[in-house]
# Entry
Amino acid sequence: MSVKSIDKDYEALTITALAEFEAAPEKVWELWADPRKLEGWWGPPTYPATVREHELSPGGTVTYFMTGPDGKTYHGWWHVLAVDPPRQLSFRDGFADEDGTRREDMPVTGVSVTLTARDGVTAVEVVTSFADRPQMDELISMGAVEGAAEAMSQMDAVLAG
# Structure
């Protein structure tokens, strides 16, 4: 498994996931840049993602939903802040209603993705930032850490094609 660690930092209000892949940064970048590849890993295995809209450029929007084992869908969105292929991506990530309307009652997080080539592998760091401790605690209680680990564990298979 390429996921090396997922760490919570309650003082910095972040969750940091580290992974390494035996692939060039350009290939790993496609995990975010190609909506079909993003669908292959963004949701945990039992909550596969479907990407509806995918504009991976500053100011762009990505919308998606995950379908649970019971058929219920959970909708989300990204507001893309910065894109520097194949090195860096940052976006705000939040929850939405079925029609894509942002849910004001749910937390919005900041996400920063950094890809670094070293020693024949591509290291990936994904940092999720929270506005405050209650928001962080809420998402952790919803299974965000376990869900991220399960989702990211699918990245190798997507890279392998």
